[in-house]
Amino acid sequence: MSEYIKQETVTEQETKLARPSAAGFDVEQLVIVPVLSVVVAMLLGGVVMLLTGVDFTRIGQAYTALFLGAFGSISAISETLTAAAPVTLAALGVALGFRAGLFNIGAEGQMIVGGLASVYVGFAVTGLPIFIHLPLALLTGAVAGALWGALPGWLKAATGAHEVITTIMLNLVAMQLTTYLLRTPLMQRPGRTDAISQNVLPTAQLPKLLDWIDPTLRLNAGILVALAMVGILYWLLFRTTVGFEFRAAGLNPSAARYAGMRSSLITVVVMALAGALAGLAGANQILGVLGRATIGFTAGAGFNGIAVALLGRSHPVGVLLAGILFGALEAGGRQMQVAAGVRIDLISIIQALIIIFVAAPLLMRAAFPWAFRKNLKARG
Amino acid sequence: MDIELRGITKRFGSLVANDSINLEIKAGEVLGLLGENGAGKSTLMNTLSGLYRPDEGEILIDGKPVYFQDAKDAIRAGIGMVHQHFMLVPVFTVAENVVLGVEPTGALDHLDLSKARKQVRAISAAHGLDVEPDAYIEQIPVGLQQRVEIIKVLFRAAEVIIFDEPTAVLTPQEVEDFFGIVRSLKAAGKALVFITHKLHEVLEVADRINVLRAGKVVGQADPKTATESALAEMMVGREVQFRVAKAPAKPGRALLEVHDLSALDERDEIAVDGASFTVHEGEVVGVAGVQGNGQTELVEALTGLRSMLRGTVSFLGQDITKASARARHTLGISHIPEDRQRDGMVSEFDLAENMVLDSYYQEPFSRGIAMNWAAVRKASVKNVIEFDVRTPSIYALADHLSGGNQQKLIAARELNREVKLLIASQPTRGIDVGSIEYIHKRIIEARDAGVGILVVSTELDEILSLSDRILVMFSGRIVAEYAADKVTLGEIGLSMAGVPTMGALG
After folding, report:
1. What is the number of structural domains in chain A?
2. What angle do CA A233, A235, A237 make, to 5 degrees?
3. Same domain assignment for residues B480 and B366
4. B-chain residues within 8 Å CB-CB of A255?
């Protein structure tokens, strides 16, 4: 008791040392470069429109429509967040890999496999109430993605096969698997000859969140899953021993080995968790938006996830912001196509430009020297 | 060519790295530039070699002021720098590296390597450098790689050559050869700057000594009359103890018993060949030897980072031959690794994270899988103060610390825990005098508290200063054992070269 009451004397030096430092938060890398990249990419998108014969008035209309289509109404926000959920989930998986020094190109494949597993559970398992059926379908998607991700992780740990190669190959396998499975009686909708699955039962669908305002609003609980995963990944990376190991292994594998961490185990676990997140992205797309699987049901969200993870600097919160930006570009892009007649492909160009600029911070530094501190390296 | 620096000031934000420095460099002379890490030596030389532009002051060559826009200007003016970390392409030959960037070309712009080879041979012969132009960089030892850097600078017609910590990576024999080269360059009329924090080297080779501290020139000295302790005091700003004061050891129980240990290196060749020895509680056992005689592999085998080919290791009677690095850590074995940047820390982690790099899994730093950052913070603050790690915050990145402070951070981590045995590999390599003194003091304190210590070092002074018993490794074998108070430097030196002596083991 007396120990509990005893006041610890804290010296001024101790307080000063424990004061948070700005060293971990690099404003230039985390804020200025991404924001400038987005702005410049939009400007260059305007140049592309000019070059293809779109006049200034229509460029103005296009960007106005882009913005309104993304944030201008409840329906727009609903579409933005609906599109943001899967790409954020997939990007979280990619970001986790980056943190641990693994370049997981396989989010697309993991997403496909997760989606296929969840669609099967969604229509084939019957007679369950929603509070069992839906979590089961989500979980199956995550587990399937985890297994698909763990495979290249294991290959790397056991044989040294580089994860970039193996995950790209497994993406192709997953894509062809979709084409094949969707035409087998196991999955195919009765009476159809094309590649389309049976419909997910209502008990496995992610509930709509805004249908009390307007039944056409598509926003579903998938965004809540994504938000929860942002929180969980943050906690995992920065508040647990496991995350400490992941980050140490990612930044300096030989120091991790020195510290007694088991790098092969870390590789497999990280790839499995990354796969689980991408698998959830697939399940989200199936159970929340589409209700069935077709070829290309991911809409490339797994690939975009790589871009979003880069833009979000592999930080869960950054990934969420970048995911919402990509969702907004997609939702707004559709509006832009309708209202201004500018093809939605322009959005892909803008997205690609953003990534090029984020990946080349020195380019931004050279173009906008006034936005950065003067000395590149302040140590001698 | 004479160079004069007048009132050079260089600031980085609020930090004044160089504070109105005046310096003269004369042809045919070696200027020794002494200073602790962070004293501003490298900044000054980077200014001279055109990498930085000074905020104030000017550079005069033969009395005329010059302005360098970039490094190319400085090279054109005849200033060359041999960096501490070599800038060579490992898969290129010596000649290819030398001409890189200024390739001699023949007709139709084709690369004329035969001309390059001839020039390399000529330069090599003129200064006794003895480098084969067609050898590949990755296949020649570090000492020769440094000569390639010297040839590169000479090939670019440098009249002033700056050496940044040139002996940090060299073996004692290579250091001797290097001094020979320096004398030859001096005789050829070059102006030389020798940056170091090793006092005896600067006394041996320099003609004049300038001492930097906290960005200012704090003193000049004449190597003929100056003493090591006077220089050290100038450098650190207070009196320095070279030999840590210690009472005779009181060895206790046998702690680490190594029997017939053999291990392979990366190329699957025998690196450690049947080593047997014991470390007791409360004693320091030093392992001396020229770099590359199996010490690295021995330490890795003892710490569980390298599998053994043969032999057994036991700790307090328990067999740990097959135990993992983590298991050994849990038993109370601490390890200060040879390469602190590569193994000892994660440079992009902050100090606090590095402070628990290998003990994060233990209470109080974590419970279950949840990290307890409050406990980490508390321990880090305590360690930083106790080990005098100079940092504004425990949340500064480890990368931003000087080498000496990084090493103090690692020493704090490895000593301030439930430690029974400390295996310290090159514990003071490349760090300043003040930090060396401090780390040595802490190692002896740990010994007096009953910790068994195994120190592996290529610095004989360090071995002699710390050890109670000395083992000498040569070609993977432990060839001699001495009681530290009954041996001379000469005897150990002979053993290190593989010559049998009084202390030689059968």
Report:
1. 1
2. 65
3. yes
4. 342-346, 357
